[in-house]
Amino acid sequence: QVQLVESGGGLVQAGGSLRLSCAASGRTFSSYAMGWFRQAPGKEREFVAAISGSGSRTEYAASVKGRFSISRDNAKNTMYLQMNSLKPEDTAAYYCARDSMLVRVGVHRPGDYPYWGQGTQVTVSS
Fold this sequence. Notes:
It is a single chain. The protein is an all-beta fold. It has no helices and eleven strands. The protein is globular, with a radius of gyration of 13 Å. The mean pLDDT is 96.
């Protein structure tokens, strides 16, 4: 059983920063790619960023590239999302997810990720 627990969300002013964490259970954390997704009210869940099992490869949605940074510490079974220069349109519930593959390149669909956390709310005020 894989459990994912997000933390670090909150309320921040536009231009500010937040760091999200995702703690995972299990002994095979480094064997799987991980991702961050977000969902705003009334909108579909969308891809934010992904990282390979080793951490050597990362991918970002165009809307966050250059502002967000994904990383992982396999010794701690934890993934991070550093969010800088936050905008009101970044407001959403943020979810971490574990992939079924070691590396995923290109398209990142929610359906490709079998395990999900409960989400953490990020609200950016203007």
